[in-house]
């Protein structure tokens, strides 16, 4: 379950400010004025429009329990306003679409100038009768996150709790897409411009198949065909992506010089962990304290696979593998924890099971997945463990035509990352064959997301141009071939936490403002660490040098205080080695 707060970023929370919106001026406000009311959307300037819409849980019977769907509309900011909004279908399955509103408000500001942005939490997620349950317990025990993908006892407990007020066979993709069409009609929109990311691309295909008359354009980012039975192809796709990234390291002089035997180190790493797990210290994401954990081959492989999702994180894979080969497994263990806490644990586990245990896992033939996993670094562990979980979960019926290719006349823009470990470019090629008005673009060096690449903003410009024009014909795409990755990381990761006295930390504390912006940050000393309050969120900072700090729970991030003559001149926040924010002391 990958999370996406932005089109370019997966697995991280991004704060992006949008232009101030005007009031909702579409048919939605005229036909259903009571459905949406003005609301504050955290991370978005100005007022949004929020509300709920009731649907039957059992859509076929049209009786019994009703569930409420959470809706957020970010109104168009300019004029004229087009009648067809831009709707986002999130990934996972299990992510809440409305949680992506702040990031997408920034990414899609050009589209939002003339179109409303529509977010509807899929049934079973977010604010739409969520099927949430804790899979990794007790939460205080880090090791609980480093075991089975879905522990069978947690699955049993989850089912017992959710079935008290939910029919778990009524949370499939077709049900969710029929819900969306009900919301469309209630809001008075005749047609939608649909964006699907990851699993959301499958949802978009289902919507296009079931409601073709109500689709104006479709953008599919990281394409999952309806007959791509997850996680059948995960091992092969991840192996392809890792080999591609390691080859790019070998082709870069600095990376090749730093890691001359990287391919062998990778092989030895996974074969060694297959023989025996290792004990290592990892930073506790909640306390920042080093905590002893056991790291298995399965979790190490999963950590690398999730790093491949992001080009920024993939650029750190050589250094992480090399450091583990030298006996320091902390960076790898912390990335395994990040995958389980933030990615797998970041969505609705019940919805994930209801979808995949009906639409995916049962359709994988015995022995098929095991054969495909042979010789890969990931192996078949995900398939084995998801089968065990699905054996305990109710299976929903699926429409007979569900796995058939999607056809139709709507224009479709398909986007793939060259080294995507989950949805490779071949997926888009397959889907595009039955879509006569489609265009497939492959982003060089891209993963499941594109952040960290140089020149990647051209992708957002292309999406905006495509939606504005309503066709792929004549779309100028030459900028895609110019996208490049920054240099690979070659320095090792600092893993030893320092003990600094409060007087040393106090010199760094204070109130700061973003350089060239208005975002404020407050840094306070608490218990030998620094707590940063930024944009309504708090982040724990753990010192690894007198002026450099790590953020527990986000292994790619660190914070450096630039100090001259005992005074902080600037604070630099980096992600994957790239500065993403700079703060200076607030005056007055």
Summarize the structure.
The protein has 588 residues and is of the alpha+beta class. It is 31% helix and 21% strand. Among the domains are: 236-344, no CATH class; 502-585, Lipocalin, CATH 2.40.128.
Main pleated sheet? 9 strands, mixed
The assigned structural class equals alpha+beta
The helical percent reads: 25-40%
DSSP strand content: 15-25%
Could you report the average pLDDT, rounded to the nearest whole number?
A: 92
Point out poorly predicted stretches: 1-5, 10-31
Count of beta strands: 19
Give the termini distance in whole angstroms: 45 Å
Q: For the largest beta sheet, what order do the strands appear in spatially?
A: 1-2-3-5-4-6-7-10-11
**Continuous helix count:** 19
Radius of gyration: 24 Å
Instruction: Indicate the overall shape.
Output: globular
Structure in words:
By secondary structure, this protein is an alpha+beta fold. Among the domains are: 109 residues, no CATH class; 84 residues, Lipocalin (Beta Barrel). The protein contains 19 helices and 19 strands. The strands form three sheets. A nine-stranded mixed sheet has the order 1-2-3-5-4-6-7-10-11, with helices on both faces. Strands 12-13-14-15-16-17-18-19 form an eight-stranded antiparallel beta barrel. Strands 8-9 form a two-stranded antiparallel sheet. The longest helix is centred in the middle third of the chain and has 18 residues. It is globular. The N terminus is likely disordered.
Helix-strand layout with pairing:
Layout: H1 27-31, E1 36-40, E2 47-56, E3 66-74, E4 86-89, H2 101-107, H3 109-112, E5 117-120, H4 152-162, H5 173-187, E6 192-197, H6 199-210, E7 215-221, H7 234-251, H8 253-258, H9 262-275, E8 278-283, E9 290-295, H10 297-307, H11 311-314, H12 317-325, H13 330-343, H14 349-359, H15 368-373, H16 381-390, E10 412-417, H17 425-432, E11 438-443, H18 457-469, H19 502-506, E12 510-514, E13 520-526, E14 529-534, E15 537-543, E16 548-550, E17 557-564, E18 567-575, E19 578-585
Parallel strand pairs: 4-5, 4-6, 6-7, 7-10, 10-11
Antiparallel strand pairs: 1-2, 2-3, 3-5, 8-9, 12-13, 12-19, 13-14, 14-15, 15-16, 16-17, 17-18, 18-19
Helix pairs in contact: 5-6, 9-10, 9-12, 10-13
């Amino acid at each position: 379950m990958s999370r996406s707060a932005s089109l370019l970023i997966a697995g991280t929370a991004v704060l992006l400010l949008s232009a101030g919106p005007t009031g909702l001026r579409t048919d939605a406000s005229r036909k259903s004025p009571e459905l949406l009311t003005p609301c504050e959307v955290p991370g978005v300037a100005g007022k949004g429009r929020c509300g709920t819409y009731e649907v039957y849980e059992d859509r076929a019977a049209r009786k019994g329990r009703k569930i409420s769907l959470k809706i957020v509309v970010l109104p168009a900011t300019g004029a004229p306003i087009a009648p067809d909004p831009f709707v986002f279908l999130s990934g996972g399955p299990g992510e809440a679409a409305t949680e992506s509103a702040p990031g997408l408000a920034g990414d899609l500001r050009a589209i939002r100038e003339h179109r409303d942005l529509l977010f509807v939490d899929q049934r079973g997620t977010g604010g739409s009768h969520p099927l949430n349950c804790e899979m990794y317990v007790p939460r205080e025990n880090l090791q609980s996150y480093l075991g089975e993908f879905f522990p069978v006892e947690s699955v049993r407990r989850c089912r017992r709790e959710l079935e008290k007020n939910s029919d778990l066979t009524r949370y499939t993709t077709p049900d969710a897409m029929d819900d969306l069409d009900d919301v469309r009609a209630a809001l008075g929109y005749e047609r939608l411009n649909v964006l699907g990311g990851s699993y959301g691309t499958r949802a978009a295909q289902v919507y296009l198949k079931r409601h073709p008359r109500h689709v104006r354009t479709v953008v599919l980012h990281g394409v999952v065909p309806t007959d791509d039975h997850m996680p059948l192809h995960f091992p092969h796709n991840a192996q392809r992506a890792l080999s591609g990234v390691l080859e790019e390291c070998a082709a870069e002089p600095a990376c090749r010089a730093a890691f001359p035997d990287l391919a062998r180190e990778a092989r030895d790493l996974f074969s060694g962990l297959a023989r025996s797990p290792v004990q290592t210290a990892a930073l506790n994401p909640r306390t920042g304290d080093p905590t002893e954990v056991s790291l298995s081959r399965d979790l190490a492989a999963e950590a690398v696979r999730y790093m491949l999702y992001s080009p920024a994180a993939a650029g750190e894979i050589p250094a992480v593998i090399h450091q583990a080969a030298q006996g320091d497994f902390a960076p790898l263990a912390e990335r395994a924890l990040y995958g389980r806490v933030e990615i797998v644990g970041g969505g609705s586990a019940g919805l994930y099971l209801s979808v995949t245990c009906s639409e995916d896992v049962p359709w994988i033939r015995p022995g098929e997945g095991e054969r495909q996993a042979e010789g890969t670094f990931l192996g078949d562990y995900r398939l084995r463990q998801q089968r065990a979980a699905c054996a305990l979960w109710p299976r929903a019926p699926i429409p007979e035509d569900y796995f058939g290719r999607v056809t139709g006349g709507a224009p479709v823009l398909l986007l793939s990352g060259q080294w995507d470990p989950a949805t490779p470019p071949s997926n888009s090629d397959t889907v595009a064959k039955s879509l006569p008005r489609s265009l497939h673009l492959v982003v060089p060096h891209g993963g499941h997301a594109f952040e960290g690449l140089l020149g990647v903003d051209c992708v957002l410009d292309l999406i905006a141009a495509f939606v504005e024009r309503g066709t792929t014909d004549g779309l100028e795409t030459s900028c895609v071939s110019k996208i490049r990755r920054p240099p690979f990381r070659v320095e090792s990761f600092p893993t030893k936490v320092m003990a600094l006295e409060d007087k040393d930390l106090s010199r760094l504390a204070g109130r700061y403002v973003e350089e060239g912006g208005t975002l404020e940050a407050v840094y306070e000393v608490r218990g030998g660490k620094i707590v940063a309050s930024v944009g309504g969120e708090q982040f724990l900072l753990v010192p690894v040098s007198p002026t450099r700090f790590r953020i527990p729970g986000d292994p790619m991030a660190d914070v450096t205080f630039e100090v001259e003559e005992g005074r902080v001149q600037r604070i630099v926040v980096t992600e994957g080695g790239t500065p993403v924010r700079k703060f200076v002391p607030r005056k007055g």
